[in-house]
Design brief:
It is built from 16 helices and 48 strands. With 830 residues, the protein is α+β, with helices and mostly antiparallel strands. The radius of gyration is 28 Å and the shape is globular. 48% of the residues are buried. It binds beta-D-mannopyranose.
Length: 830
């Protein structure tokens, strides 16, 4: 049986003649940080100070000592970042130039000093650029000439932190006769439940590598699939187990397993996430078991329906026959130093996404193929994953040495990720087809390659060959062919960026794309995050640290104009600017989603740019670089919930849309009130509504309920089953808000052990009970002002006079009512 030894210990990093202790997996920056050679790049303007780290070569070393009874020993690097030369006892084993691949070297019988010498990624990129020639790029740095996480060279939300190192595990594999080189489960489902009997089919395609002795030997491979995992509960296929055996033709074998009536894997909100364990064992007669491979799989079908219809051509995910409005977010690397990611951190971040009722996560092409831990959590939480191949915002040469690297990398990652049932789409690139058409690339390219051959040729061929049941799209955005503009809203996927760049967020309502794969609005991170990142700085929207932690072109200008369209732009009041920027972000994204969801099924999904951040920065993220939730996160939780009440501004006043994305009908009565700003109800009605599952109803609002057009004193409120929507006929700066007046009281929450108050100094939970005496619009408790670890369970709240709201605060020590009052913000403060 194969033996595996992880090589985590005994590594050192050479720096100016000294040897620093090194962590593997890890990278140069984390080792230099641990040795206090560099300051934290996330703090202040340290990023600029440590730019030198990326500009030089680095050498890691360890003593390699092994002694094995096996025929073969291989040194396996799951990820080398990036341009490396690997030498053992002074002899070069090989060279690498791609952080997204696994590399394997034969070290049978060889021991001694193992050195992994990294060149500067810039040097490598320049070398390749010299071979392929120059290509256009949206960003200044040369990321398209090197297969390394593009955003490590800086992005419009990310710092330039160009690292090097063994960012994924390194191990020795000792084996004899043969090992499993590739295992690909192709999972399909015959006969969906409505058709009567269902059969889950697993076709396992196996490839082996052999030693000389193994060359002629007959091998057998056995596969078993059994119910497993958190979702497989009572009444499920629990306990069932199927097995199959096959022998090899050459180095390949195919096994087929049928699982009768499998429990289906569903996206969250549509059903459970039962997972089945698949085990593949390689054996030969003399030695018995040689190698084992284990993964979890799930039974579901997925189709991306792109067929033509009266509106153009759609883009609708269909899982197990159910058509889905995708409630998505874009995912960027959660840390600009991705070796720091842990399974726990993936789980935290993805659980935050699930808490916001997200059901689809797009792994964006300027980042990485994430660790298996990421996709494991998505499998468990029912988060559909759309995976970009790693190309973003640039023209990419198709010549060697890049072409071979890209093919190898795509093969590695398709094979690695295809067992995950959460994976629903492979996508060729981010914005490159659009870039070719619209960003003036054609002239500088002058006929040179730019990546089209990857997106329309190589990548779809690889997906069809290796992972034939999964949909592939050439790019995002993409209209399906060159016949239509790549970003044509009527066809396929669309990125909506004009609105943030140049317009008021109301303009989201001007079109109904078939699938909005990117759109978003910026806001600064939580105050505690800024305080940590910018120690000692007197914060102002344009203070030096704030500007350094704002990477977007004219980012602050766009933030300010976004605020000024609705509110008086606060001068000299950072806290209010910060609050208003966060309000506008939440409202903007909500406006888009409310509008597009109301147009289901013409529009079949929204993928918010962006869920997360990779350091502390003002950005489009809903969760900031320290993991704190912005008000947008709470707003996503509202607008992505199964049930949503929406008031959409229409030509003749507000239009009510009642969205029901649940699988059961929603029968309710919408209470609608036309109100005066002083709290008087001017007209009211109960509107009975019946909304079918996964559909939208638009009940007519009686005319007497519509606030007078242009009124600065009237507004409309609709409520149903604890949900609320409000409509104000004019912008906030025009509306006659009374100075907000509310009472405040704090109530300690009984602990889980029934212990009423908390012991002194102990972190606790308490409720902030707000009683509105006037209209209070978009009340927000910024819990991080009460304590760096404090969180609140609610975001923006609009209260009518006399209403009470309860906000649960967790993770902070006792505070006073005055402190809470100072952490509360609203649109029209007293
Ligand atoms: C799109 C993304 C990213 C970018 C974002 C915000 O272009 O694909 O490249 O960060 O917009 O500008």
């Amino acid at each position: 049986m194969k033996d595996v030894t992880q090589l985590t210990e005994g590594w050192s990093l050479r720096h100016e003649g000294a040897l620093l202790p090194a962590r593997v997996p890890g990278c140069v920056h984390t080792d230099l940080l641990a040795a206090q050679v560099i300051p934290d790049p996330f703090i202040g303007r340290n990023e600029t100070e440590i730019a030198w780290v990326g500009r030089q070569g680095w050498c890691y070393a360890a003593e390699l000592d092994h002694d094995s009874r096996h025929e073969r020993t291989e040194l396996v690097f799951e990820g080398l970042d990036t341009a490396a030369e690997i030498a053992l006892a002074g002899e070069v084993l090989g060279r690498t130039r791609n952080m997204h691949r696994t590399h394997r070297f034969d070290v049978t019988g060889r021991t001694g000093r193992l050195e992994v010498r990294f060149d500067s990624a810039y040097e490598e990129a320049e070398r390749v650029r010299a071979l392929t020639g120059e290509r256009p790029n949206v960003y200044p740095e040369p990321f398209q000439y090197i297969r390394k996480m593009a955003c490590s060279f800086g992005w419009d939300w990310g710092p330039t932190v160009v690292t090097a190192g063994m960012w994924r595990p390194v191990r020795l594999e000792h084996w004899s006769t043969a090992r499993l080189a590739e295992v690909r489960p192709v999972v399909t489902v015959d006969g969906l439940p409505d058709d009567g009997t269902t059969t889950g089919r697993v076709e396992v395609r196996v490839r082996v590598a052999r030693t000389e002795r193994g060359a002629g030997r007959p091998l057998t491979v056995r596969a078993t699939v059994r119910a497993d995992g958190p979702g497989a509960g009572a009444g499920s296929a629990a306990g069932t187990s199927q097995a199959a055996e096959a022998s090899f033709t050459g180095d390949e074998a195919v096994l087929r397993l049928d699982v009768p009536d499998p429990e289906l894997w569903w996206p969250r909100g549509y059903g459970e996430q039962p997972l089945y364990g698949l085990e593949v064992t390689l054996a030969d007669e003399e030695e018995g078991r040689l190698d084992v491979w284990r993964r979890r799989i799930g039974f579901r079908t997925v189709v991306l329906d792109r067929s033509a219809d009266a509106h153009g051509s759609g883009c609708t995910f269909v899982v197990n026959g159910v058509r889905i409005f995708a409630r998505g977010v874009n995912w960027i690397p959660d840390d600009v130093l991705p070796s720091r990611m842990t399974p726990e951190r993936y789980r935290t971040r993805l659980t935050q996404a699930a808490d916001a009722h997200v059901d689809l996560v797009r792994v964006w092409g300027g980042g990485i193929y994430e660790d298996d831990a990421f996709y494991d959590v998505c499998d468990e939480l029912g988060l559909m994953v759309w995976q970009d191949f790693l190309f973003a915002c640039a023209a990419y040469p198709e010549e060697q040495p890049l072409r071979g690297e890209i093919e190898a990398e795509a093969r590695d990652n398709v094979v690695r990720l295809m067992p995950h049932p959460s994976l629903v789409l492979w996508n060729g690139n981010n914005e490159n087809l659009w870039g070719f058409r619209d960003w003036d690339w054609e002239e500088p390219l002058a006929g040179d390659s730019w990546g089209e051959g990857y997106y329309l040729g190589l990548l779809p061929r690889i997906v069809a060959e290796l992972d034939p049941t999964r949909p592939y799209t050439a790019g995002s955005p993409w209209s399906g062919s060159w016949e239509h503009h790549p970003n044509d809203p009527r066809h396929g996927t669309h990125h909506s960026w004009e609105v943030w760049n140049r317009q008021d967020y109301a303009e989201y309502r001007a079109s109904v794309p078939r699938f909005v794969a990117e759109f978003g609005w910026q806001a600064p991170p939580a105050l505690a995050t800024l305080r940590r990142a910018l120690p000692g700085e007197r914060l102002a929207p344009d203070s030096p640290g704030m500007l350094h932690h704002q990477k977007a072109e004219d980012g602050n200008g766009k933030l300010n104009r976004g605020i000024a369209r609705h509110f008086a732009l606060p001068e000299g009041d950072f806290d209010r600017w910060h609050y208003l920027a966060q309000v506008v972000q939440a409202r903007a994204v909500a406006a888009g989603i409310e509008h597009w969801r109301a147009h289901w099924p013409v529009c079949a999904g929204t993928v918010v740019w962006q869920l997360n951040d990779c350091w502390p920065v003002s950005s489009w993220a809903a969760i900031d670089g320290d993991g704190r939730l912005k008000p947008l996160h709470h707003e996503l939780r509202r607008v992505y919930a199964d049930r949503l009440l929406t008031l959409l501004p229409g030509e003749d006043g507000p239009v009510l849309a009642v969205d029901n994305q649940a699988g059961t009908p929603w029968h309710t009565t919408v209470g609608a009130r036309r109100m005066h700003v002083d709290g008087t109800v001017l007209a009211k009605a109960g509107i009975p509504v019946e909304v079918e599952p996964r559909s939208v109803a638009r009940p007519v609002l009686p005319a007497e309920l519509l606030p007078a057009p242009g009124s600065a004193e009237e507004f409309l409120v609709v409520d149903a089953d604890g949900l609320r929507a409000v409509h104000f006929p004019v912008t906030d700066r025009e509306f006659a808000y009374p100075p907000a007046d509310y009472g405040l009281r704090l109530e300690t929450v009984a602990g889980a052990d029934g212990d009423a108050g908390a012991r002194a100094g102990e972190a606790t939970s308490f409720d902030v009970v707000v009683t509105a005496r006037t209209l209070v619009r978009d009340l927000l408790l910024q819990a991080d002002r009460l304590g760096a670890g404090a969180t609140a369970d609610r975001g923006l709240l609009t209260l009518l006079p006399g209403e009470e709201a309860r906000i649960r605060v967790s993770g902070c020590e006792d505070v006073t009512v005055e402190q809470v009052r100072a952490a509360l913000f609203c649109v029209a403060p007293r």
